[in-house]
Amino acid sequence: MSALSTRRFLLEVLENDRGSAESILGCARDCLTTRDADRQSRLLLKSRADMNRVDTKQRTPLYFAACMGQLRIARVMLRDRVLVNSRDRRGWTPLHAAIAHGQTDMVRSLIDWGADITITCTCGSTCAAFSALYNQAVAMELLLDKRADFNYAEQELYTPLHHAAEFGLLDGVGRLLEIRADVEKRTKEGCTALFLAAQEGRLKAVHLLVMARADINAQKISSSPRVRLESPELEGATPLFMAASTNHLDVVKYLIAAGADKDLRGPSTGADTPLCTAALQGHVQVLSTLLHNHAAIESSLGPETNVLLAAIDAPTKASLLTLLQAKVSPNLNAATAASPFRMAIRSKNLEAMKWLVGAGVQQETADPRGWTPLHTAAHAGSVEAIRALLHMCVNIERTTNRGATPLLIAVMAGRKEPVAILLQAKANVNHEKSEGWTPLLIAAASGRCKIAHFCLQARADVNCANSKGYAALHLAAAGGYPQVVMMLLQSRADKDAVGPAGTALTLAAARGFLKVIQVLLQAGVSVDLPQEDGKTALYCAAARNQVHAVQLLLDAAADHEKPADGGFTPLRIAASRCYVETCRLMQRNVPKKPLKGNR
């Protein structure tokens, strides 16, 4: 654009008052291509244009000049007392912008013209923090000459040293350490500069901070009890822990050589040792380095965790193999529910199980509940683990503290295939746990038809009752499981056995299980057989207003006039409770042809 056309365009924009911050700056930049740049630049001011006018993001022409390093235009604006400390939406001043864009000459000019170096942007960062964050060594020197506070912490309590260390800005770290910036100052999350540098793998920054005598074992602890950490599981973590967790091998080696505590554990239950986190993350080289430097295995033990457990949970199995090759005992926490062998069984990790067995793991050690690995495998439904343990000839009848065998545990967990395998291995199908519960009773009470079938095939006692007197047929009828009831009847269960709450028919009638009632009636149960207090099935159904059950029993010729021990008949008990429909059914008393019930 020629000088003449530039001048005309400037005049047109300014006379019509359409100039935004960008257009004013654009015109001024065009002036620089002409021979009379200074003269044309002054035209902006002589025409009375508003040099403090802002765009939609609150940016002024001076802001753009600072970003682009247009020093001559900025000087013209500054001589006319343009607002040097104007702020955009982010709170950035032209000085912030000049530092962020590396315009050192502009920084010098703005400072000379009185730019306020203490102004913070909306995130709380000062110009000093910007010089560190953007690795602007010259800007840092200029700010130091003006006595800028390089220990000032922003809203998240980050200082310039934190920024420089986290991003590995070595010039900034070195200069800040020269002016004795506080190396132990913590962020809101409780992180020191060394912690951040180790976390990000900034080896040279770590070296500078260690040489400046930063606490190599400083743990991540919140700066205030009221501050809630974003990652509470990392509370108490050290720089070495973070380097191990993020797989920065060179930083790990350096910190160990510098004397970092390899076994320091934080107060949080989630903060394990560096050895544990390396095993959990599958960082094999870091793990080998820690083991080679004699990191203590025992110090990584917790009530519910240990280094082998972490290795089993790792995304790859190389961690576990590395630990076992380093002669780590496979029996860590063997007598607890958190043993590595049990964890491998629960996760159905057959490869880990084989390695642990090959390393000499104890296969029959019980935890405080009395559970052996076979109990754990039965509960987890780990078929391969069960077969492997049975192949090792473990005790198949070992009981827990409550008297449960692995077979009972598998039945209670509803594990069909493990039940079949244990029964094929000749597990005692009639073993009773506490209160007399057998596998068949548990299967019948929970309606597990397939498991009940397995038990009956293994010749389970179909009429065995628990300590309260309930047989399998009672439990299946009370639960409303017609298929299990039919299976038990086909296996010659006593259909008229009387339990504490009556017969199977009484239990089903009281609960209104119509399909169970039909199955029992077709099997020829005694319709009017009373329980101990004289109540019949019809009485129990009428007392609970089970209308459809009453109809079925009346169709089977149940006696609606037979009284219980208190003298109440089914009709009378229904009437006393205002069960109108039930009373009407019994008053009609027109029984149809009996199904197969006996009087």
UniProtKB/TrEMBL annotation:
Q: Pfam families from the xrefs?
A: Ank_2, Ank_4
Q: Which UniProt keywords apply?
A: ANK repeat, Repeat
The segments carrying the ANK repeats are 57-89, 90-122, 156-188, 189-221, 235-267, 369-401, 402-434, 435-467, 468-500, 500-532, 533-559
Respond yes or no to whether keyword Repeat is given for this record: yes
| Protein name (database record) | Ankyrin-2
User: What is the taxonomic lineage of the source species?
Assistant: Eukaryota, Sar, Alveolata, Dinophyceae, Suessiales
Gene responsible for this protein: Ank2
